[in-house]
Every structure is written in structure tokens, then in C-alpha cells.
Fold:
Amino acid sequence: MGADLAEAFAKRGGLVYMPPDRNRLTLAYDLTVVTPGQSQGLLIPCLAMDKVPEDVQPNCVTIVNPTAPKVTIRKYGEFLENDLDYDPRNPETFEEDASFIVRGDWFFPGFYTAESVSMPDHMWMVGEEEITVSAIQDSEEYRFLASFAVVDHSTRSKSVNLTFSAA
Structure:
């Protein structure tokens, strides 16, 4: 895997982005207030590759800010926050906290999930307005809130067809 520039949209609606006045991934419903630097992430091979099973290593990613590559998205508590790779909070868990297993078509065709490496069986999920990391639940609501459409900018010009549904 190389590096892919991508954006994520929650299945329930809203663009995932990092607002300038907060340090947590949040949903934007008014896309006119979001810049590409706030919504795009550069997906690189995960920092904790040696800690994930070989069969999921191709799907293990770390997400960095494309305009400031030292800024990395990491799980911190139940939230997804920016952190500096050269001076992270909780450095002993940084590599695992900044690594996610991304799977396509997991709950819904055409949608992706992101599982935390540091907390197996916990996935990204839409919270009140922020993206949280939550234990997998066997419910339709959880599957809906843990599903994201991903726009890969390296293939976007080659025709990306996304389908959003309210159900």
C-alpha cells in the first residue's frame, strides 16, 4: 500500500473533518465551511503493522494530515483526535492508537468501517456530533452509525459512484 488521500462521509450524513477550533474528528453538515485540509486524510501503512494479524495488514492504516504530516489521527479515550507523532500523549500506546483496520462492505455494500487496533472489536462510530470509538454492537443502528463512504482522491477522477441512503 502506498499513500492514499481520502475523505469520509458518515452513512447517516455529514462529512468527517477536523474543525479548527477543536481537536476531535467531527461531522460537518454545511460543506461550505470545510476546507480540504480539514476533511482530507492521507492514509499510510499503519504504525502498528507488527501488532496486527498478517491477513488484515493490507487494511491497516494510519491517517495523517496531508498538509502537516507530523499530525496524526489517533484514538484518545473514546474520541479520535489530532496528535503529534514526534511528541504524542501516551507515547507507549501511540502506534496502536493511531492504527485502524479499514474494511469495505463490512456492514453495507459500498461503505467502510474502521476498527481500532488498540481496542479490538471497537469501531469508529458517529456520536452526537463527534466521531467516537465504540464497542461493536449487534444492532442495525450501530451498523448504520459505524459505516462510512470513502472518497479516494487518487481514483475520484476515474468515476466514483457513491450511494447514500437514509435507512
User: Anything to note?
Assistant: The longest helix spans residues 140-145.
